[in-house]
Inverse folding.
């Protein structure tokens, strides 16, 4: 059971969350930092980098007050509250040493890790107060990344088993999401997907019956509720459908986090702590349903077209194009080709200038900024007739710059202008659902 920042965002929400855990019985619980804490710690790190010691001290004081107030509201037992304040003394004394240190990325990652340490410490003491048979495990003892920055799944499996075996008969294991150690043994984090990724990796490592991601939304919706009225949660998704939706804009889930669960064939259920009775969305190796499930959109896309009549059909042309993007560590989202040109999209313009400089050696290069990828997800295996026609017909009045279909059995992607995004999402909902 993974609970995000809003699910542990206040003393009352922590109490509600612990009630859900108690009702579940045997569970391993992964917690994020309290909402707002990670941003505060990132801001604190920037103050330290900028040499703003006064501002850094104030930010630490403000954060300490927030956690002392939360502890007092959360814990009634006098001895346990005393223990909470003693732990806070120790943690914030440690945090106050950082402004005086030589500060680098290593120290920043240590500072950011304080958020999860704080939330799990408080919840662990509250679980004790409620008489729960629970133990707090330090995630940095078993969560580790390899030299490529990817989770070391064998190490995680072996070491979480060792950690759990030290506490036989325990009902609830509690641990931190997001934070880990790298291959050098330094405090680090999982970056992409954060606590969701931790939950999926732990679920796969201990062969859980189910991985539950608890947020403040009742599952993954069939369109973006910020722009489209009347969206509804999708009851079931295939792992591949969920990954496509997550990659192309569904904020409830990060695309990487479903991979460990998918490989271990463990269902992932998206649930709402504010509406725990709602069925949410279950993600598993679902059988084909012959339906379109949902729509998502990814903003801030840049389209690049390379037109080269004398080069495109030459052996190795596409390889040379891709090598330029690889050189500048810039992933490509979509690609379409014709006899005289190739178009690609990227979502990061950091290295756009040198990329364009090298691409211009191959031909005429044009760029479209402020584009949006709209992704339609479902059982889109090419033998299912008419689905791509329905999608294109829904957008007959919207100019479409690129279409990508056939790259997977679960996705049609269309590139449109930023100003056409909301009308496109609304038209797709109207026509498809």
């Amino acid at each position: 059971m993974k609970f995000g920042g809003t699910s542990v965002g206040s003393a009352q929400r922590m109490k509600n969350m612990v009630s859900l855990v108690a009702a579940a019985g045997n569970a391993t619980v992964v917690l994020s930092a309290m909402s707002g804490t990670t941003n505060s710690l990132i801001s604190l790190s920037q103050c330290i980098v900028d040499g703003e010691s006064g501002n850094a001290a104030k930010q630490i004081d403000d954060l300490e007050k927030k956690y002392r107030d939360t502890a007092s509201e959360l814990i009634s037992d006098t001895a346990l509250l005393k223990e909470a304040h003693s732990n806070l003394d120790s943690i914030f004394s440690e945090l106050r040493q950082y402004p005086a240190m030589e500060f680098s990325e290593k120290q920043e990652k240590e500072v950011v890790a304080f958020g999860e340490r704080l939330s799990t410490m408080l919840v662990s003491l509250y679980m004790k107060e409620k008489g729960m048979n629970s133990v707090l495990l330090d995630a940095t003892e078993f969560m580790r990344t390899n030299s490529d920055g990817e989770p070391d799944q064998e190490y995680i499996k072996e070491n979480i088993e060792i950690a759990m075996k030290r506490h036989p008969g325990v009902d609830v294991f509690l641990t931190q999401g997001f934070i880990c150690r790298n291959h050098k043994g330094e405090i680090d984090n999982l970056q992409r997907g954060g606590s969701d990724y931790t939950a999926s990796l732990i679920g796969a490592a201990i062969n859980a019956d189910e991985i539950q991601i608890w947020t403040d939304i009742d599952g993954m919706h069939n369109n973006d509720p910020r722009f489209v009225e009347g969206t509804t949660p999708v009851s079931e998704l295939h792992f591949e459908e969920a990954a496509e939706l997550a990659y192309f804009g569904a904020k409830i889930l990060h695309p990487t986090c479903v991979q460990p669960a998918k490989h271990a064939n463990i269902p992932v259920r998206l649930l709402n702590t504010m509406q725990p009775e709602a069925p949410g969305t279950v993600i598993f190796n679902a059988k084909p349903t012959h339906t379109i499930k949902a729509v998502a959109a990814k903003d801030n896309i840049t389209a690049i077209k390379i037109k080269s009549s004398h080069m495109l059909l030459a052996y190795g042309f596409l390889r040379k194009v891709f090598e330029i993007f690889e050189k500048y560590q810039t992933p490509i989202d979509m690609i379409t080709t014709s006899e005289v040109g190739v178009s690609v999209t990227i979502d990061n313009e950091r290295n756009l200038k040198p990329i364009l400089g090298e691409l211009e050696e191959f031909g005429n290069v044009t760029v479209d900024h402020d584009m949006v990828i709209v992704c339609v997800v479902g059982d889109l295996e090419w033998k299912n007739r008419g689905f791509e026609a329905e999608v294109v017909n829904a957008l007959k009045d919207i100019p479409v710059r690129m279409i990508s279909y056939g790259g997977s059995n679960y996705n049609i992607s269309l590139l449109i202008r930023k100003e056409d995004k909301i009308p496109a999402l609304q038209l797709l909902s109207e026509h498809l659902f």
Observations:
- The first strand starts at residue 2 and ends at 3.
- The two ends are 31 Å apart (CA to CA).
- The chain is about 40% helix and 20% strand.
